[in-house]
Amino acid sequence: MSKMMRRGILMFFLLLAVSLGIIYYTIDLEALKTITTFNHESLFLAILALALGMYFDGLRLQRLVRIGGYQLSLKAVLRVIFSNYFMAMLTPGASGGAVAQVLVLKSYNVPISKGTPIVLIRTVFSIMFLVIMLPFVFLYDAIEIPYISRDMLLVFSFLAVIATLIGTYILQTVYMRQFVYNLAQRYKANKTKDWLAKLETLNQGLSLLYKKPVQSFIVFIESGLSLIFLYCIAPALMFAFTTNVPIITILDRMILLNLILYFAPTPGGTGIAEGLFILLFAPYVPSGTVGIIAVAWRVMAEYIPFFIGMYAVLTLYGRQFVAQETSN
After folding, report:
1. Number of domains comprising the chain
2. What pLDDT is recorded for position 21?
3. Domain hosting residue 166, numbered range
4. Which of 13, 76, 80, 142 is most buried (most C-beta within 10 Å)?
5. Which of 274, 238, 324, 268 is nearest to 85 (CA)?
6. pTM over 0.70
């Protein structure tokens, strides 16, 4: 049995175990009564939110590729987007998602030297949007974190925004190159060239944005719209069990949750995503239903795109590509 097959089977049983465990430990008799009044319109709203999120994700990808001087068809855009879901779920820290996107772009005549910064900027813009939204999240929602006051959370969120903006500028300076060089020499001297090459790749992506600031701003807006619509899947699914859904509060907490997931060490954030979802949203849904909603959210937002991405990647490259990337 190949390593790809073993990892796929292991991932399947991990997802199944996590999903069944969450439902088992959170469901109760009251939840079973609530299921009898299930609102099927919520499924339509969740699918609509997923479709709109993918639509704006595709728009920003097409625009970034166009800024780089290339064109992508609708089929190519979908393959790039869904390949990210597929490989991210199979690799720790979602590291394989970026590799898959770059290689799919290469198959559509976008060189790796251009595809890598494009993919990197997509991720940077997503994280940047979430960081910029943090002050609004903590200003509007009284999220409680042990040992940290609400005022301190606001201060930290504003500092994160300022650090992100200043850091984007500093990355382009010679001081950052010198800092990365010294850091690499101190800890991993044999990797110095690799570290500098990664910094250069990031700067190439940022230089694309500086050339066309108006288009870059539109890409940032499209990134935000894509994320917001994808996060709307959660309140849409909650609507299946209650009509009293505080949408703004739910979206605030989805922003915080997904920002944390960018740094989750497990493949696709499995386990961590469901646990955070239950912790953040249990007060807003009927008793015993939060586990069902958490699993449904993961199925809609991650697992369905995962299987679509599996089909897209395997029909483009075959199992050999996937086996090689998962082993790497």
Report:
1. 1
2. 76
3. 3-326
4. 80
5. 268
6. yes
